[in-house]
C-alpha cells in the first residue's frame, strides 16, 4: 500500500512542480475567467460566465479578435470561496492576463492587494469595493457601471419617489448577505437614514443563506415599508420564498442588481410576481443586435457555451457587458499603443480612458441596453445609471425611467473612504492632473 | 540497508535524548532543510510559492497548534477558526494602532492575545469533556465570528468588514515578494514546530498525554489537571493565533470574518485526523493533503490534456477528494504520520525482511 501512495504522491509532486505554464504567445491576449459553476452560487455564476465567454467567442469569430489579435481564455472554478479564487488568480496569472474579472467581492478585496504588484487591472462591473471608484487611490480597480453605494442611492431615490418625496418615519429593512458584498451599502443607507429620516433595520443572513426563517419573522414583527434584498445565489430565491411564507408583499421588495435575475425568482414560481430589482443598466433583453450576432456567430455554429435559451437573460447579459467592457478597454489601449497584443498595464490605461458614446453603443449592438460610459483617472465607474424592473411571473419588464446616482454627495464618501484606505496601506494617492 | 542505526552507540544521556537520535534522520532533515531553504526559493515558480507552499506552511502551523490540544491533550476543539481570527485581528489592530512595533513583535503579541482568549474558552474543559466540550468550543467559534463581524472597532470601522494589510518590512527586509514571504514563514514555522516537538516530549507534554489517556489516573499520579488542560489550551491557541496572523498578513493580504469561519475550523480538525493525531509531522502531512490535493485534482484533467467542462472537473474534484479521505482513514486510521513511521520500520529491514 505504501508503494501505491508513494507513487501517487510522487506523481502529484512532479506535476505540481513542473506546472503547465503555457505563456500566451505574442499574437494572443489572455482573459482569465473566474467562475462558479458548482455550489450555492452556481445558479447565478453559470449564466454570467456563459454570457462572458460567448461574447469573447463572438469577438473572435466575427471580428477576428480585437485589432486582429485573438482572445484566449481559461475558466477556473472557485465556488465563491475567497481562498480558492486567489489560487485561481495565481494559477492564471502566469498566462499574462490583460484583465481579471473576479466575480466576487471577497476575491476583489484580496486581489486589490495583489493587482498593483502584478500590473493586472481588475474589472469589477457592478461589484467590488465601492471606494475603488476613486482612481487616484485604486489605480488598478474598475468598478464600472456602478458601485453598491450608487445602487443604494438609486433604490432610495425610487422608494422616495413612490412615497411622494418623503421617507420620514418610514422603515426600510436591509436583508443582506453577511459578507463584504452585503455590508457594502450600509454606510450610504446609514448616512441617508440620518438625512432622510427613515429607520434602517439591518438583517444579516449567514452564507449561503438557505436558512432565513428567523430573519423573516423579524420582518413580520417589524413590518418595514420596504425590504432591500442584498443577496446572491440561493439566498435570493430563499428570501422570496420566505417573504411568501410570512405574507410580505413582493411588490415592496427591491433586489440590488445581483438579486434581480431569473434564477432568483423562478424557484419561487408564480408567487414571486411583483418582485422588483435594480438593473445594472441592462435587464433581460433578448432582441438586441448583439444577441442576434451571438446566435448567428456562436450558437448557430454549435459553439455556444450554455443553452441557447439562456441567451438574453439578466445575468447572461451582464456577462456579455462585462466582457464587452474588457474588449473596449483593450481597443482603447490599442488606440494609443498600436494594434498589437496589449499588456495588463496598457489595458489599465485603456480602461481609464474608456469613452463609449451612443454611436459606439449602437455600433456594438447594445442599443437600448446601455447608457454612455466615460471613465477618467479620478472616476473609475464611468456611468452611474440604473432602472427598476419588475417580475410579472413570466418575465422582467422595466417599470421605471433611468435614475442617476447622486454623484456629488457619494463622491465625498468615496474619497474619504479611499483616503482612509491609503492611510492604512501607507500609500500616496496619484495626482490626476499629472496623468496623461 | 541504508536506513539502519547499527553501530551508532549513544554514550551519553545527551546523545540519547537528542532530537533525531538516528544519524540518517539527521542527514535527511539537514537535506530537507537545504532543499526547503535554498533550492525551493531559487527554483519554485511564483504560483507554487503563493498558491501552495505558503498556505501549506501556515496551515501546517495551525494544524500543529490544534494537534497540541486535540492530539496530545485529548481536548476536542471546534473553535480553531475563531482562535485564528483572534490572532489575525489582534495583529491587524496592533499593527494599525501601534505602528512602531516590528512584525515579529506583532506576531508574538497576537499569539499572546489568542492564548488568553483560548484559555478563557478552555475553562469549560475543567468540568466537561468529549462531545460536550466540542459543543462548548463550537460556541467560541460562533461567538468570535459574531464579534468580529459586528463590532466595528476591530475592523477599524471598515464598511464592508473587510480589512487589508500593508506590505510587511522587517528591519528593511521587505516581505513583498513570494520568495521572501516563503523564507520568513519557513523560519517561523520551522522554529515553532521544533518548539512544539520539544514541548511534547518534555514534562509538560507528558502531563498532556497522561491527561489524554486517562485523566483520573493522571490526577492520581500527581498531575494537576487544571494546569495541564489550560496550558494545552494556551499553547495551542497561541500557535493558532500566530497562524491566523500569518494567514491574514502573508497569505490573504485582505480578509473578512468569513475567512475564519467554521469551515476553516473543521478543515484544520480534519487535517490533524488525516495527518495523524499527536504528531508534529502529522500537522505538515495533513495540511499538505488538504492544500495541495484539491488543487492537484482540479488541474489533473488539464495536465492530462482532457477537455472537460469546469463544472464536471469541480464535481469530480470533490468526489475524489472525499473518497480519498475515506480511503486513508480505512487504510490507516492513525493518519499519514503513522504510514510514514511504518515506512521507516520497513526500511530498517529492507532488503532482508524476516
Description:
Helix content of chain A is 44%, strand content 14%. Chain A is α/β, with parallel strands linked by helices and 436 residues long. Chain A folds into 2 domains: 257 residues, Rossmann fold (3-Layer(aba) Sandwich); 157 residues, Rossmann fold (3-Layer(aba) Sandwich), CATH 3.40.50. In chain A, the strands form 5 sheets. A 7-stranded mixed β-sheet of chain A has the order 6-5-7-8-9-13-14, with helices on both faces. A two-stranded parallel sheet of chain A has the order 1-2. Chain A starts with a helix and ends in an 11-residue tail after the last helix. The N terminus of chain A is likely disordered. Chain B is an all-alpha fold and 354 residues long. In chain B, the strands form 2 sheets. A two-stranded antiparallel ribbon of chain B has the order 1-4. Chain B has a two-stranded antiparallel sheet with strand order 2-3. The radius of gyration of chain B is 21 Å and the shape is globular. The two termini of chain B are 14 Å apart. The mean pLDDT of chain B is 92. The interface between A and B is large, with 53 and 49 residues.
Strand content of chain B: under 5%
**What is the residue-mean pLDDT of chain B, rounded to a whole number?**
92
CATH topology of the largest domain in chain A: Rossmann fold
Shape of chain B: globular
Helix/strand class of chain A: alpha/beta
Order of helices and strands of chain A: HEHEHHEEHEHHEHEHEHEHHHEHEEEEEH
List how many beta strands of chain B DSSP finds.
4
Overall geometry of chain A comes to globular
Largest sheet of chain B: 2 strands, antiparallel
Task: Count the beta strands of chain A.
Answer: 15
Structural class of chain B: mainly alpha
Approximate helicity band of chain B:
over 70%
What's this, in brief?
Chain A is α/β, with parallel strands linked by helices. Chain A has helices at residues 2-18, 42-63, 82-93, 105-118, 148-162, 180-183, 186-196, 213-222, 234-246, 262-265, 289-299, 314-337, 344-352, 358-364, 407-425, and strands at residues 28-35, 70-77, 122-123, 141-142, 171-177, 199-205, 226-230, 253-255, 276-278, 355-356, 373-374, 385-386, 388-391, 396-398, 403-404. In chain A, 44% of the residues lie in helices and 14% in strands.
